[in-house]
Amino acid sequence: MADAAIRGIHVPAAGSGVTIRRLARRKSTIAFVMTLPLMLLILALVIYPAFYSMYLATLNKSMQYFVGLSNFTFLFKRETFWLVVKQSVIFAVSAVFFKALFGFFIANFVNTLPVKGQRKWRGMLLVPWVIPTAISTITWFWLFDPDYSAFNWVLRHLGIAPISWLGVANWARFSVILVNVWYGAPFFLIMYLAALKSVPEQLYEAAEIDGASWWQRLWYVTLPMMRNIISITVLFSLIVTFANFDIVRILTNGGPVDQTQVFATWAFQLGIQGNDIPLGASVSLFMFPILAISAVFILRGVRKRSEEM
Amino acid sequence: MAATAIAEGIQKVRHGSISKNRRRALFWSYVFLVIFAVFFLTPPLYMLITSLKSSAEIAAITNPWFVYHPTLENYAALLDQQVFLVFMRNSIVVSLCVVAITMLISVPAAFALARMKFWGSGVLATGVFLTYLVPESLLFIPLFKIFAFVHQYTGIELINHWWVLIVLYPTLSVPFATWIMIGYFASIPKEIDEAALIDGAGYIQMLTKIFIPVALPGIIAATIFAFTVSWADFLYPLAFTTSTDQLVLPVGIITTLIKGDVYNWGQIMAGSLLCAAPPLIVYAFLMDYYIAGLTAGATKG
Known about the structure:
The complex is a heterodimer. Chain A is mainly α. Chain A has 2 domains: 2-56; 71-308, MetI-like fold (Orthogonal Bundle). Chain A contains 16 helices and no strands. In chain A, helix 9 (169-197) runs antiparallel to helix 12 and helix 14 runs antiparallel to helix 15. In chain B, helix 6 (121-133) crosses helix 9 (170-186). In chain B, 47% of the residues are buried. Chain B has 16 helices and no strands. Chains A and B meet through helix 1, helix 2, helix 4, helix 5 and helix 6 of A and helix 2, helix 5, helix 6, helix 7 and helix 9 of B.
């Protein structure tokens, strides 16, 4: 149809050529008008700021003159920067791994239930994804409260010493990852449950007749059938988790002493609170490579998947 | 009871019967699902428990998982505060406007991209998807500076006004909404629009009379998505609004209700629950649309 539209313009006015040409011209004009607000929005508030941020990163603190890459060399020399790099990567990779793992197993558990009961369980298990992250994180913060922690109350009654959930670096890191997994695993669950429905039942029946155990069916039937959706969700979640701001900001605010700081929260601290916009922009730009790489692979996966469907 | 069930399970395997094997899988599925359900539902339940406690009860450090003297005083105190009602009004107005803007932008755009193939439409569709992947944490710093520029040149102050969120949130909601609508529109048979064109319908008529009614589930899913995104966002309002009368619910609850007063947690949790309620209610009633929208992102387009 696109070809016809383009050809229509070149066809000399012969018979029906006139109407086709008019139709084509009208069509592309209408299409342009229909997509114009979308394009303006993306250009003005996504693409322009993204490039502008690269320009900002090359300015000095008061944004008066060009300093080249010295913001970056300054960052490279700071210990906090490497701490932030390390933590961002550790948080994103481990949180996504556990989200995917839990999501995959829960989806399989739900899928073994009788169809009637599945809806109820699915509905219940998606709740963390529905609650605004900021709100659920503040609840976790309260659950971790140093004096009133409800978890420590349970631990005390089990005879275990209370844990300083957010006060000690490694426990604070654990807590950040835990909240990330809690929030994100339901998303994986829903995606995998939908994908499981499209695995042909005959494959499982054949495997069962061949005497395959539950594990073997999971490993040799389910996993290969879901390879594509697993890679899409993992990459997507990698972007979201890597760029996440809310959880670290509310739970630990980067502390204790920057031991849980990630790119997004550090950029906020330097750029908005510290009033050094160029430095903040430089920090946030480090999120870009991992985003770009993941995005390319996601796109490839989505294309492949649409062809399969 | 669990032990006998497990013992039975082991025996069943020995017999090698398929139905017994299945029963064992079912048993373990329930065990793990209960564990995960407890993990997933602990924070919302704890929110409810704390919100029903009086400050005195919280301060007394009794069993945190149980309410001895349930009271609604936190809710009453909260709804009595002018500032909380302002947060709520701001959130509601922002979300409704964002939903309307999102649908007005993304439905026509998705229709054009899915059906009226034109020069560059494929690239634009891919671009829309890529924009969806650009996180807000990459954009808030340049936007902050851009807003300062706008103020300098036009005199319009964008920072510290709640309505600026109506301008910003569509960047979060429109790309994904457009992307899933492209998928829904593309699944409508081509014969229908050919028939409509032959009958003399224009493109606008085709969209309003055929595509929107047929793709209504997709439109509902996109609407829900736009609402939840604009209701829940935290970074943009935190970066761009500061005065208490300009805040939306999530930021308002976290920045103004926490005043270093430990015993205020009853109110904070009550506020949190009130903030979590609208998305949860939408989800409870429109779960299937919600889930369809969520899963459509990875499969359609």
